[in-house]
Amino acid sequence: MKFAGMRDQQLLRYNRQILLPQIDIIGQQKLLDSTVMIVGIGGLGSPVAMYLAAMGVGHLVLVDHDVVEISNLQRQIIYDTESLGQAKVIAAQKKLQTLNPEIRISPFQNQFESLNIEQMKAVDLLIDCSDNFTTRFAINAACVQNNIPLVSGAAIRLSGQIVVFINQKNTPCYRCLYPDSEQEAETCTENGVLAPLVGVIGSMQAIEAVKVLLSIGKPLYGKLLLFEAQSMQWRKINLSKDPACPVCSLPGQR
Ligand SMILES: [Zn+2]
To answer: Model-level pTM?
Structure first.
């Protein structure tokens, strides 16, 4: 059997999660065999990529067109001062390979919109850590089209949100949540963001990613979880499918 081949060093490296009955050796092997695409290696993408790499998700596909700027370092903890001016995906790749040399990293210094369909084929799960609606809508459409589960997160000022979408009948997609395609995202550049808040939301995205990959517990399918750091309150909202949604309700999409 394949998992019988896990080496002693791997058993040691992943021991504290193999001990979890929900993961065990079979789950660990599944993580090692998984491909996860992370779009946006910023405040959210940093903890997402670092946790998934540390946990041994076997193949991480990183997508980000930006270079590291000094104003990123306040919250984008995958980078350090030496990363300044480097392509984010390359600086992130270096950090992740140091963290875990056993996994594969594929960096794409592109906008998500310019990836081709072939690059989506082997992806088991996509994690949206982007910061604008054009990219989020493009990610959502690609996930619906290719039947890829999507873990979406966002954070601004002292508020954050997480939601998971899976392409099932009668469940909403990201576009059902935001029917107006002309949405302008508020940006951290203009509004600011509390650094550990993106750590909280990114870590929750990593938790949901593992749950989806290993079919553990109840992921936030079609449920929007909202967090207010100011009052430390969490709120969960059930989303409903928009029968007029141009992405998931068009004939032929289901
Ligand atoms: Zn929809």
So the answer is: 0.95
| Identity of the amino acid at 68 | V
> Ligand 1 centroid vs 56 CA: distance in angstroms?
32
* Ligand 1 geometric centre to CA of 31 (Å): 29
Structure-derived torsion over alpha carbons of residues 159, 165, 169, 172, reported in degrees to the nearest 10: 30
Q: Answer yes or no: is 251 within a domain.
A: no
* Alpha carbon of 10 to ligand 1 centroid (Å): 40
Residue 114 lies in a domain: yes
CA of 219 to the centre of ligand 1 (A): 18
Asked if residue 44 belongs to a domain, the reply is yes
Distance of CA 156 from the midpoint of ligand 1 (Å): 24
Q: Is the dihedral of CA 15, 21, 25, 31 positive or negative?
A: negative
Give 249's contacts (C-beta < 8 A, 6+ positions apart).
Answer: 241, 242, 243
> Does 11 fall in a domain?
no
- Domain range for residue 84? 34-238
> Count of domains in the chain?
1
Environment of ion ligand 1 (residues, CB < 5 A): 173, 175-176, 245, 247-248
Residue type, 118: E
Q: Exposed, middle or buried: residue 95 (CB in 10 Å: 0-12, 13-18, 19+)?
A: buried
For residue 123, how far is its CA from the centre of ligand 1 (angstroms)? 21
Domain of 49, CATH number, reads: 3.40.50.720
Q: What is the per-residue pLDDT across 124-166, written as a single tens digit (0 to 9) for each?
A: 999 999 999 999 999 999 999 999 999 999 999 999 999 999 9
DSSP 96-139: HHHH-TTSEEEEE-S-GGG--GGGGTT-SEEEE--SSHHHHHHH
